[in-house]
Amino acid sequence: MTAYAPPPSAKAHHPSPWVPVLASTKFDCRVQIRVSSGKAQDEAAALNTAWLAATVLRCRLGAPIRIPFYSPVSFNEIPTTSPAPQITPFEMGETHIGAFTTRVCDLEKEGIQWLKEMLPSATHLFSDLRFRRFLTLSDTAQWAHSPEAGCIMVWTALEVFFDLSDKQDKTKAISRCLSKYLASERSEYDKIFPLVRKQYQHRGSAVHAGASLENSDVAQTFRLANVVLQQCLIQRELPAT
């Protein structure tokens, strides 16, 4: 069910009206994304735009941002719309894996400006198959059934991003490519390279030996993917292969 006001007390129910939604997980929705256009837009295109906006914010902010459901009408119109609109679950996974530093964050002016500048970049890049595969893989990883599975998906996404799928020594290749991509000078490269190599080796242990990963290593892997995405959005192009 969806409700549209907080309960008056800790033991009270949410006040009516309520609208049914096919989901069993509880969320408090704090922000509404409304996708509007001067021309008719189908539901899939509107949802894709909202998802891109959330993805652009996810790579920048340290909170577990998600879009739990979407509706054909705005949030405040749902209780009074007749017949009741169909509310469709979207990012309703019970797990959410990532490099989170807080449960909730405020979207300050800097974050709004980031979204304003980078959403057009994400839309432009999304027409490139390699970027689209990287983004969907890395984004899907946060809903994986385990942190280890999520990290494996993130590294697969990064291999796609740098076009390394057919390379033999992937550990060295991805360590070099990722370090070169993120470093602006040699001293930074020397710091990033061993970090990337270590995390990719952890990925190998999870794949080949079923090893568990420390929370700090999981967060570091997702953080690397976030920084790569930020860099790509700023440059508005993928690295040469």
**Average of the residue pLDDT scores:** 90
**Strand order within the widest beta sheet:** 1-2
Task: Work out the strand percent.
Answer: under 5%
Query: What is the H/E order?
Result: EEHEEHHHHHH
Q: Note the quaternary state here.
A: single chain
How would you describe the shape?
A: globular
Question: What profile does the largest beta sheet have?
Answer: 2 strands, antiparallel
Rg: 20 Å
DSSP helical segment count:
7
Low-pLDDT runs: none
Span from first to last CA?
A: 48 Å
- Which structural class matches the secondary elements? mainly alpha
- Portion of residues within helices: 40-55%
What is the tally of beta strands?
A: 4
Short structural summary:
This protein has 241 residues and is mainly alpha-helical. The chain has seven helices and four strands; from the N terminus they run ββαββαααααα. The strands form two sheets. A two-stranded antiparallel sheet has the order 1-2. Strands 3-4 form a two-stranded antiparallel sheet.
What this model shows, in words?
This protein is mainly α. Helix content is 49%, strand content 3%. It contains 7 helices and 4 strands, in the order ββαββαααααα. It has helices spanning 43-58, 109-125, 129-140, 147-161, 170-182, 186-209, 215-235; strands at residues 2-3, 18-19, 69-70, 88-89. Strands 1-2 form a two-stranded antiparallel sheet. A two-stranded antiparallel sheet has the order 3-4. The longest helix has 24 residues, at 186-209. The relative contact order is 0.12. The model has no long low-confidence stretch (mean pLDDT 90).
